[in-house]
Amino acid sequence: KRLKQTGTGKLKRMRSNKSHILNKKTTKRKRRLRQPELVSKSDEKRMHKILPYGS
Known about the structure:
Blueprint: E1 3-5, E2 11-13, H1 27-34, E3 37-38, H2 41-50
Antiparallel strand pairs: 1-2, 2-3
C-alpha cells in the first residue's frame, strides 16, 4: 500500500522525511512533504513489472 495508481496509469507515492526531526524543517518544507509525488519515469517501468494485479 505504498503506491497508488492514477487514472492515467502513473504511480503516486508519499514523500520521505516527514516522520521525525521536524522542528528544524521549515513549515513550507513540511507542507510540501505532505503532497504525494509521482514516481519518476525511470522507476515507473520497474515498479509496474513488480506490482501485482496488472498495474
